[in-house]
Amino acid sequence: MTRVGLEHAGRAAVGVCNRVDALRVPADPLVADPPERWRGSGPVVLVGGFAATGPVLAPMAGWLERLGWDVVPVTDGAGLGCAGRAADALTEQLHVAAERSGTPVRVIGHSRGGQFARVAARQALDAGVDVAALVTLGSPFDLYGLRWPLLAQATALSLVGSLGAPGLASLACLRGPSFRAGLRARWTPEVPFTSIYSPHDRAVPASSSIDPHARNVEVATGHVGLLTTPSALTAVADALVTPDASRAVPLSAV
Q: For residue 226, what are the CA distances in angstroms to 62, 132, 177, 192?
C-alpha cells in the first residue's frame, strides 16, 4: 500500500510540476526535435531519490529513450533505505548493465539517487567496470545538505526505521563513514561528471550540489522539475554525449 501511495503522489507531483513549468518556461524546440548529436546507445541507469517511484522518473526515462538510450530505472526501496546498502546494490547493477551490453554504462541520479550514483560509480570504477559518465540532478553531496523541511522528514523516517519498520533507513545508517566520504571523494577527469542543480530548488540548496570535481550546470526549475523541465532535459542530453564520455578509465588505473 505504501508503494501504491507513493506512485500516486509521484504522478501528482509530476503533473503539478509540468503545469507550473508550462506557465513559466518557454517551450524548447530542441526537446521537440532533438539534434543528432544527442543520439546515443547503450545502457543508462537512472536512479530515483527520496520516495521516488516509476512515475517520478518517467519523464526523464521517456526523454532518454527518445534519444536512443537503453534506460534502466532504479527505484528499489523508493530511496528510503540505508544509503550504504543502496549504493552497494547499485554498484552491482552497474556491473550487470555493463556486462550484459558489452558497452560502458552511464549513470544518472536524481536527489538522493545522485548520492547513491556518485558513490556507486566510484566503487564500480575501482572494480574495473566501464562507467562512461555520471550525471546528478539536485543531489546533495553533503550528507545533511537538505533544506529543513526535507531534512525533518528524513530524520523522522530514520527514527521510525530505528524502531524496526522494514525498508526504512535507521539512525545507525547515518554513522557509516565510507558512504559519507564517498560523497566528496576525488574523481577522475577521464570520466565526465556533471552536476545539474537549480537555485530555485526548495529541497536541496544549490551550494550542496556544487562539486569541485564536476562540471556544474545551473538550470531554472524546482526539485522535481529537474526531471521534467526542458532546460534540465537538454542539460542531461549534453552531459551524456560529451567527448570524453565514450570510454571510461578505472580509478585504479589513474
A: 14, 21, 29, 19
213 and 125 in contact (C-beta within 8 Å)? no
- Which domain CATH number covers 104? 3.40.50.1820
**pLDDT, tens digit (0-9, with 9 covering 90-100), for 4-21:** 333 333 333 333 344 344
Q: What is the DSSP string of 183-242?
A: HT----TTS-EEEEE-TT-SSS-HHHH--TTSEEEE--S-TGGGGT-HHHHHHHHHHHT-
Q: How many domains does the chain divide into?
A: 1
128 within some domain: yes
Q: Are 162 and 81 in contact (CB under 8 A)?
A: no
Asked whether residue 107 is assigned to any structural domain, the reply reads yes
Q: Quick check: is 254 in a domain?
A: no
Determine the straight-line distance between the first and last CA of the chain, rounded to whole angstroms: 47
Give the burial string for 61-71 (b: 16+ CB within 10 Å, else e).
Answer: bebbeebebbb
Range of the domain at 74: 2-33+42-148+176-247
Inside any domain, residue 170: no
**Residue-wise pLDDT tens digits, 122-135:** 999 999 999 999 99
- What does pTM read for this prediction? 0.77
Set of cell numbers at residue 31? 526537446
